[in-house]
Amino acid sequence: MLKPPRNPLLLKALVIGVLAVLMLIPLGMIEGLIVERASRRAEAVASVQASFAGPQTVALPFFVWPYVEHWAEQTVDAANRVVVKQMTESKQLVWFAEQSQATAEVAVRNDRYRGIHRVRTYESTIAISGTAAWPDSSQLKPSADGRRIVCGDPRLVLPIADVRGLRGSPMINLDGKAVRFREGTQLPMLAAGLHVPLAESAGAPTTRFSINLELAGTERLAFAPTATASTVTVKSAWPDPRFGGSYLPRDRTVTASGFSAAWAISALASDVQQQVRTLAAATRPDRPSAAHARTPLDTFEIDFIEAINTYLLAERSAKHGALIIVLVFGAMVLLDTLRSLNAHPIQYGFVGLALVIFFLLLLSLSEHIAFGVAYSIAASACTLLVTYYLIHVLANRARAFGFGGALTLMYLTIYAILIAEDTALLMGSALLFATLAAAMIATRKFDWSKMSASLKSG
């Protein structure tokens, strides 16, 4: 005959503790599923970018004047004969506008789908204007004596990250004359974009330009401030922008009806002009490295994000799963012990699985409906299920409904923690402290030794 354990209360606590640890296995599987679904969403965004247009970066216009240096070099061959070689080197003079102003009106749309995933795209109307002084002729001179230069046609260059997003045929107004843009920039390391020849304007001391273009993209719009003084204003009805890049806006207004942001950047506070000169003088490597694949210019950017990121919130909620399981199991152990209900570990297991299924319901529902609604449905379903089950486990409706009310309060508190990013740690710490304090106060007069002895004798 098996002897009863010396301390059945401790044994039961250990069994329930092991059960709580086992609940972390399906919880971890759900967290892995959240990561997988988030990667699927990233694949959907990449698919839309591949067939529509990617995130856009627009560099404010700058100017390039190509020229070729010619010279002769004498060498002596193996037969001791003097050989004259004609040498050439292609170079270009790069200069920038004194002032450039750009305004952008952006209409963000959520009308692109890949499967169940919705991808944010936008249509923007961009107006750019500015003035530039022509360089002094002394800047176009040979780099050494005995060399001569042959100048090409100067051009205005407008780099654009993904020209597939251009709508229509953009025009530029040069000193009052409308000119059509040509394809490409003729710069190997800044190849994507547009250019326009300036041969007819070369004699003027200054050039005034104005550009109007319509540009579509996906999720992000960025600008590179190339002028000596660059001013950019962006407006949109999208209520959730995120400003990033190398420069934050000087002024910004964000409301529920949209945002307006303005940047004013001096070349003295920016490395963009030097970056442009370096890239203009470079040639494309045979095998581009990862560094060349990144955006080569310092920019400021606007990300058109969603205020509620479904997968981020689902991941953060799942990280509270262990806390929820421990709190619920702890409350059940207290009720079980204080009321001598002698609930079976399998009953604890069913309640734990119901708590874990909540996170799977939340993930699957939030992919189709708003996160707050999905959270409410999942929490309500799990609370009702646990409450109904505990009516029979606890053999008392009042206790079961009280337990269900406490579970509802816990879900509400977790939701408040999820949506309050700035104070999430503070609220979580307060929840843990309040729970521990409630347990200590409720059991402050409880004689655990006497209870263990009674369980052993019983």
Number of strands: 18
Give the fraction of residues assigned to helices.
25-40%
H/E series: HHEEEEEEEEEEEEEEEEEHHEHHHHHHH
Helix/strand structural class: alpha+beta
Uncertain parts: 286-295
Number of helices: 11
Please give the order of strands in the largest beta sheet: 9-8-12-5-4-14-17-16
Word description of this protein:
The chain is built from eleven helices and 18 strands. With 458 residues, it is an alpha+beta fold. The strands form three sheets. It has an eight-stranded mixed β-sheet. Strands 2, 3, 6, 7, 10 and 11 form a six-stranded antiparallel β-sheet that branches. A hairpin with a 2-residue loop joins strand 4 and strand 5. The relative contact order is 0.13. About 2% of the residues have low confidence.
List the helices and strands and how they pair.
Blueprint: H1 8-22, H2 24-51, E1 56-59, E2 62-76, E3 82-96, E4 99-114, E5 117-133, E6 148-151, E7 155-159, E8 166-174, E9 177-180, E10 182-183, E11 193-197, E12 206-218, E13 220-224, E14 229-236, E15 241-245, E16 251-255, E17 258-266, H3 272-281, H4 290-293, E18 300-304, H5 310-318, H6 321-338, H7 345-366, H8 371-393, H9 397-419, H10 424-442, H11 448-457
Parallel strand pairs: 1-13, 4-14
Antiparallel strand pairs: 2-3, 2-6, 2-7, 4-5, 5-12, 7-11, 8-9, 8-12, 10-11, 13-18, 14-17, 15-18, 16-17
Helix pairs in contact: 1-6, 1-7, 2-5, 2-7, 5-7, 6-7, 7-8, 8-9, 9-10
